[in-house]
Amino acid sequence: MQKQFCLATEPWIKVIDLQGEVRELSLKSTFAKAHEIRCLAGELPNQDFAVLRFLLAVLQTVMYRYEPDGTEKLLTEPEDALRRWKAVWEDKKLPETVVDKYLEEWKERFYLFHPDYPFYQVPGIEGMGTSISPGRMIAAVGESDNKARIFGTYSTRGKNGITDAELTRWILHFQAYDTKSTKIIRGPVDPERGKLHPRIAWCGNLGAVYLEGDNLFETLMLNLVLLRTDVTEDACFAQPKPLWERDTLKPIEDNIRTDIDNQAELLSMPCRWLFVSRKQDTFSASSVVGENLDPKNAFLEQMTLWRPIYVKAKEGPVTDGFIPSLSDYTRESVPDRTDFGRGMWNRFNAITSEQEDARKPGIVLWMQKLTDQGILSEEKTVALKGIDTVYHKQQGSMVMDVKGSSIDMRLLFLGTRGKEWREMLDRIIRLTNQMAEIYATFYMETCEAIGHSYNGNAFGTRSEGAEMFYGAVDAPLRKWLSEINNGVTTPDESEITPEMFEKKWEATAFRTLDRCAKERIRSCGMAGIRIIESETATSGYTGLAACYDKLWFTIRKVTDHALDEIYWNMDPRSDRADEVCDYVREKINQYRRTADDPKTVRELALLRRSVGRNPEEAHQIAQTVLQDFEEIYRAATGYTRAERAVFAALTLYAKSFKDKYEDGHTEEASFGCAVRLTATDKETGKEDADCLKQIVRYMNRILSADYLQTLVRHADSLFRVQKGRMPGFDYGWFAKDLFLWQIREYNPSVKLAWSADFLRRRKTAKLDAGMQEQEETGPDPGTKKTKKARKTKK
């Protein structure tokens, strides 16, 4: 085999420059022009991560062996490490001559095809282990050898005819993220050692994170950790031994390395022993499992989140080390999908937490050291980026998804002065996660309430609900985080406190949760408001309104803030709704005072005959009833929504009017609760099942009505069927509800309130701009209040 395609001089690294153009550069050009490059721009986010780790391995080797001026001197003292890092950072570009000198020295090891030292490959394993097809090597295609992907991003010709530059990038990706399907018992490994289980390549175990600066130079420097972060005292790593400097690769016990003590060797670790050969316009490859690490307490790795391993003890769970956040120690290398669908902000507490059972990533500890030493300014803003590579839950033989996410933050949050801000962010993230769990439960219960079967996969349904909430809350939370970054940089920082931002986010989060819940109920159509029978519900009936009610009852347990002040948004039209309520109450009081007046008797009689009719059809009585209504709420021609609501409510009131002592009006008693109490026997206090079933039918007709006159007729039918049993309710509130019912965006909220009151059997359900206010009260005292009023009058 002849030497072909030198990575040091041939363009293969895909980048975006500061002008926004996508280019391919050689290894030398990438280091020389790093300050002119915006970022890496490979085919996948995790491919960029793999290429970044390779570049860092080269840079680690150079920085540990050379001074920035080119003098050859091994790095052994922590003070020298900080001095070298600072000198390069202040120069604002990488030492081009030093890097070129090193690449020229090892140029023979950077050929993609070479008779002895092909790049990231092991000669002599042709035909052994697993045969790697182009479709599997190219992760953007991600197909197995058994069948082709139907809707692939590459054509057959495109897969087989990729360039050497593309092939180089995919080899780095393959070494970092290969699945479990690569064989382990063939090739150089001794087959007599017994059956071993393959592992996912090392980067697939990581909750991968890295810091991104304004350009590639800053990105490389911010992730270039020169001191150990797993010890309390400053200490350098051992001397670098990158993969390309090793002459041979020898089999190791269980394929687990225990002797790696430097960053360059870790960053270039060959997780697969691979060999690629060109055949005309295509290529073929063979692979066996190479080297890996035991993930437990592998703190040499700087670019991952960590999660603790808990073991049982007499005093309770205790921490027994840490593993990368996507690794499952009980089932080797199977990622934990609980983070799937969450944004990078959700991991902020794992990055900044001060608790004993938490460990920060090495790059964050390194940034803290640089800011505390004054080498980096706390005002510097960086992007914290994360990569999610999701494998098949059970087998790990297939990549299900690749996601990248990021958040911008100031280095102030990582330093000593940022402790109270980190504690505030930790509380916010915990609260948001609690809200996601509550919404996930709500989502699962709504599926049950409308009769949707999820095949017993309750966890899957909960996960779907949680992902919906995280998707809705992601953009508002990112905006809130950017406001923190901007707010703390104001001239007078003493006026900015974490508590201010905490209260603001809680208000935003509760509004987002309420919007998600209402959108979920609205998406269920008529099933979202109907009352249905339930064998599990205590009252015998349930509905989505009960699920919604339970949602907010649970939310009130996790916060001390006054929710009514946070998310009850007042709309300009709510003043009109309040005027409707007040006018109806005043009109009822007027009828009570003049109950024996012939004019009042005649007016109530005309109203009774107008139930279910439009004001236009009963124009004379409508004009009489509405003559004292505020002019600003009346129309020159026709009738406004407010007028129609007043007229409809008063016609129903006239139907229930007997005398000034028994007129069916009880202030601050809700319509839904009154309908439910109709089924309650006054003597025994128990509900009549047959009566309740009949009432539910009428209530569902009211809830499903499309026109105001239809709704009023159904309500009138209910009153006539249950004549004498219907307790009083507030006709002022009812008129207000009817007004909001006519407004499209508030219509579902009104129906939801009526349904919730019916299921809850509570006393009140206020509505402001279509939002219901929940109050926990005892049994409805409406009837007692009427008797008490009668005694007082006597």
Which descriptor suits the 3D outline?
Answer: elongated
Physical arrangement of strands within the biggest beta sheet: 11-10-7-12-13
What integer is the average pLDDT? 80
Number of helices: 26
Description:
There is one protein chain. Helices cover 42% and strands 12% of the residues. The N and C termini lie far apart (113 Å). The protein has 26 helices and 17 strands. It has a 5-stranded antiparallel β-sheet. It has a 3-stranded antiparallel β-sheet with strand order 3-2-4. A 3-stranded antiparallel β-sheet has the order 6-9-8. It has 794 residues and is an alpha+beta fold.
Quick structural overview:
With 794 residues, this protein is α+β, with helices and mostly antiparallel strands. The protein is 42% helix and 12% strand. Mean pLDDT is 80; it is low at 185-189, 327-338, 564-573 and 762-794.
